[in-house]
# Entry
Amino acid sequence: MNTPTLPPSGYSPAPLPKILIDPRKVRAARAVLGWTQAELSEKSGVSHGSIVHFETGQRTMMRQNLRALQRAFEAAGVKFASTYKGAASMEWQEPKPPTHPQEENATND
# Structure
């Protein structure tokens, strides 16, 4: 029988990135982007019901789903940040469209 290997003494795994969203910020970010709960569900892969229950405070959300929501918002230009004394803030920047090499070459000719 194999004995599991324990990490060395004093080992500490790398901290997980902090999740900076809560129900109020999810509603605000959706409003900024003009997304419905169904659209957020589609873009994040989190079930519509989970989003509804989270936004209304009926349930907490699993960490992996919170990360999926945060990634979907960040991909759309909504950034969440930690501020003074640990409060979280949100800002929005319109995402830049991807550049295509053919377009860049056409403007340089």
Summary: The two ends are 69 Å apart (CA to CA). The chain has a mean pLDDT of 79. Helices lie at 23-33, 37-44, 48-55, 63-75, 101-108. Residues 23-92 form a domain with the 434 Repressor (Amino-terminal Domain) fold (CATH 1.10.260.40).
